Prior knowledge:
The chain is of the alpha/beta class. It is 44% helix and 16% strand. It has one domain: Rossmann fold (3-Layer(aba) Sandwich). Strands 1-2-4-3-5-6-7-8 form an eight-stranded mixed sheet, with helices on both faces. Keywords: Oxidoreductase, Peroxidase.
Amino acid sequence: MPVITTKDGVAIFFKDWGPKDAQPIMFHHGWPLSSDDWDAQMLFFLSKGYRVIAHDRRGHGRSAQASGGHDMDHYAADAAAVVEHLDLRNAVHIGHSTGGGEVARYVARHGEPQGRVAKAVLVSAVPPLMVKAPSNPGGLPLEVFDGLRQALADNRAQFFLDLPAGPFYGFNRPDAKVSQGVVQNWWRQGMAGSAEAHYEGIKAFSETDQSDDLKAITVPTLVLHGEDDQIVPIDASARLSVKLLKNGTLKTYPGYPHGMLTTHADVINPDLLAFIKG
Length: 278
């Protein structure tokens, strides 16, 4: 099983498919999932001749269930460790949800300073800041995230069924076509990870102000977001992020949910390809 070990001794699992001399695309998954959440994108870009890489965040999927380090700084440093191990250059980094925050911090603090990044994509991503604060009056109240923590602590297995069966994929909307396979795959990925990592990760994705990360990024950056995202509301995330990016482009999708990379891969994948090739 391909793993690297970080400086603080955490084993990080990764996938690396495709020609080693092709342009690399690295995918950063959302909470509380794993690199498996990128199956539709990795197979698509593999078929287009790209080298595709994805890792399981510490405490998630097949990576070590480390105690501690469940914050954006460590997430970004772990991603950097994978990049440096594989010596990826001219790479495109694509992040979903919490993975979008990981991409923003990685590109700002590691990737651009090292000259390794060509472009970035933030999909349904958490930056600049999710929680409501004096500097972020449009954010969600802290009580929302306290509720997530309580639900996870009380019955993680049930919580990890209810979330994908409801708002994550928009399956709670009238006339939604519910896929039990998608719900069960979300549950499978989530339950493979560490309850501690998932619990502490809620603070990481909700309370990390990434305004400075966004301001520091200069490579072309595409911001994609569903207008019916019930998990990361678009007005408090994507619409603010694109204003902070020096070279950002916003594309929104009416009616699309948070998990649109899965439910609408047939639309999102070609849009990603057009940006990468453009």
